[in-house]
Amino acid sequence: MSLAAREEKINMHMNDINYRKIVEMVGTLVRKYRKYSNELQIRRRHLSRLELSCSQEDIERWEMSRRDLEEKRAKDPLYADVFWGSPLSSAEPGKEITEVRLLETDGDGLVKALIESLKLEQDSLRMQAQGKDWGSSIEDRRTAAIARTRFNNRRTRANRQLAPLLDLEAEEEDILPARLAKLLDEDEWSEDDLTQHQHHLRPKPEFRPVFLPSGLPPVHRQKAQMSESRRRAMDIEAELRVADMVERLQAIREGLCDQAQGYRLAIRSKKGKGSANYRERTNAWIHARQQTKDVWVHAAIYNHHLRRVRLCFWDDAPEAIAHRSILEERYKPILAEHIRCSTATYEMYNNLRTRGDFTLPWFWRMQHAVLAEAGVDPQRGGEGDYDSNDDETFIGDFFRTRWINAKCAVVRCEEEEFMLQGEMQTCYLGYLSLAFSWRRRCRLLPIAEGSSDKFAGLRSHALQNMHAWLDLAAHAKQAFNAEVLDIISDELQ
Predict the structure, then answer these.
(1) Any long-range contacts for 281-288 (C-beta under 8 Å, 24+ apart)?
(2) Using an 8 Å Cβ cutoff, are 393 and 350 in contact?
(3) N or C: which end of the chain has fewer CB within 10 A?
(4) Under a CB-based contact definition with an 8 Å cutoff, are residues 238 and 313 in contact?
């Protein structure tokens, strides 16, 4: 095939593709508009629920702050960092940033292997959180068996990969397994270490150990017995666990507020006798129980990370001891009373329900210590004056952040809707323009004289294309007006 023929074929193919896109544009725009319309309803519903916990004065003040943020961020993108510079902003890097930073200096694959092993350990803890009866029913038996088989294969492969990197050949029985400790009486998981069986039972895969430096026997974690690669692995594992603990604490904070909000808005507002609001109340309770369990699991995994981080301290140098004391002071165990939630807790204002006794758990204030160590005044940075002893103001700032984020999400979705409405009008006008173009071509053809009309074929082709584009325009008008009332009017030109 010659170059000219190849170019002509490519151009014809591209013209066919573009033609199909133009013809199918009506359905594409309708699908996109329905998608954003549904998303906008969900975001507006979320915003309205947040506003039930806020006063009208605060909403008006936050709206002015949001508009100022939008205006200044368009000119200076870095202004958003100044605007959100509040005590709630994390002063420590998250898990993703820490992993990327460690992988940049990973020459032997140790960091990648540790990241994979930690993910497997967290998967095992989440499987343990399903409860000891998971997989015992007929419905869940196949799903649980497949999940356990896949997890065990990944665990075995990861253990074989990490052992040579640490210059250690340890038996699986000597490795400390990851166990999800019971935090509340309502927890579905339990500790079966003291359970005696009359016959030997093979442990389930989620209770079998994942090879990690913190799980080694104590003799292999002593400084004199550790190689350079094992010491480096200990430091990397501790850093990865601390980064995951930061994200777990943030998830616990958000989960507790969502949980209290669900009690207050979805359950307490659906009270009724008999069958009144039965379905809504039942769904609200199911959602509340799931939220509660998510918070419990996050807290239990956080406590597990905290226990393992303490096993990763091997260096007895003064700098290492000082760093260890800082971490122990900053990250404390989460107890049952820290994550209990009811409608009397996490109120935005100190009203009669709290009776003036509103005290936040310790993990709400840990960022103040981090900012103070970094040389930043924790009482500055954020909107208004902040008193470190005023828990109501602190939780109010939390709701301020949530409301502004929700409002920005609603505005973004509304902008997408407006843009799609403009694209609908442009699509309709484009079809009309193509139809009028073919009509003009038909009228510009010379009028036939005599019995023969040598332009009859061209004239009929032009009329056929004109009617085809007019039909598409009529179809677009009907489809678009069905989505948005009178978006395509007779006066639109």
Answers:
(1) 287/262, 288/259, 288/262, 288/263
(2) no
(3) C
(4) yes
Same structural domain for residues 67 and 110?
no
In angstroms, the CA 487 to CA 422 distance is 9
- Dihedral of the CA atoms 72, 75, 79, 80 (nearest 10)? 80
Give me the DSSP letters along 59-97. HHHHHHHHHHHHHHHHH-TTHHHHHT-STTS-SS--HHH
178-226 residue pLDDT tens:
888 877 766 555 555 444 444 455 678 888 888 888 888 888 888 888 8
* pTM, two decimal places: 0.62
In a domain, 370, yes or no: yes
How many domains is the chain built from? 2
Q: Give dist(CA 126, CA 120) in Å, integer.
A: 10
Whether residue 399 is contained in a domain is answered as no
Q: How far apart are CA 478 and CA 471, in angstroms?
A: 11
Instruction: List all residues 6 or more positions away from 356 whose beta carbon is below 8 Å from its beta carbon.
Output: 350
Nearest Cα neighbor of 103 from 234, 240, 242, 245 is 240
Tokens (6 digits) for 199: 């016959």
